[in-house]
Write a structure and sequence with these properties.
The structure is a single chain. The chain is of the alpha/beta class. The protein has 2 domains: 131 residues; 153 residues, Rossmann fold. Helices cover 40% and strands 12% of the residues. The chain is built from 10 helices and 9 strands. The strands form 2 sheets. Strands 7-6-5-8-9 form a 5-stranded parallel beta sheet, with helices on both faces. Strands 1-4-2-3 form a 4-stranded mixed beta sheet, with helices on one face. Strand 2, helix 2 and strand 3 form a beta-alpha-beta unit. Helix 5 packs across helix 9 and helix 9 packs across helix 10. The longest helix is centred in the first third of the chain and has 19 residues. 36% of the residues are buried.
Amino acid sequence: MSIKSRLQSITVLDRIYTKWKWRQRRVSWGNGYPDKTFFVVRRAYCKVGLFSHVMTNMGLVDYAIKQGYIPVIDMQNGKNTYLEDEKVGKENAWEYYFEQPCGYTLEDIRDARNIILSDGLITEKNNYPDFRITEDEELLAYWKGVFRKYFRVSEEILQEFSQRRKAIGENTKLLGILARGTDYVSSRPKGHPIQPTPEQIIEKAGEILRKYGCGKIYLATEDAGIYDKLKEAFGELLVAPDVQRYTTAGSQNINDLGKEQGKYAKGREYLISMLLLADCDCLAAGNVGGTHGVLLMNKGYQYRYIFDLGRYQ
């Protein structure tokens, strides 16, 4: 057998094992809560951002509620983008940022009799919100209702968001801009929405400023190049969080960057930035996971524009 054939065989076996390891199954951890069935929401390790977790978790929480189960989100018992390796199995990264959907934690159900561990891989059972909510107002309204009821941001993060919003100026009309660059633009992931160039963002932002009378622009981007160009174009009108920004090669994933900041801190800063975007009066954004999260958290923009530029081939 050639080396290539051996590697292909190993890959196939790895896929089979991963599917088996993360299969949905029933377990019993004791005799507690005999009248309840808990549905533990899981996701196999992959390098994805916070709102990718939020979206897929939303799909499984919605499924669990419809089945009469009590969902409990588990970002503790497996590696993920927001949990330091030494804390795997000890702390639930979900609870760094959000409350549990129905108030029950993994600690609460450690002796529960009836438990279903969700499939950790994304299957057809998980009908979660994605790019479709940027095109379908009825679908967006449905998922906003799910988010409002079951996805509550932690009080500590809400307090920090409130302080930063006051610092910008509570009565200042804001245009929010969400621009994904770095790894997305460099790697051009097949099938994903094409992201706008800085020039396209600047042109659209100028139109919105003139038409809707926004006093400032709040920019959320991890891309140093995009930030520099928008700062040059808008000067003092531009407000942005004081964070490290990057320029990456095509092979790099944005979730691998910012390690010096710490995983928890990086996620916290990101969520606060998304809350600020959600609180803006107008929005211009690329079609990415953060945008979907912002749409779910926003109470209604005066105007929003999601760039629809096709998909990377």
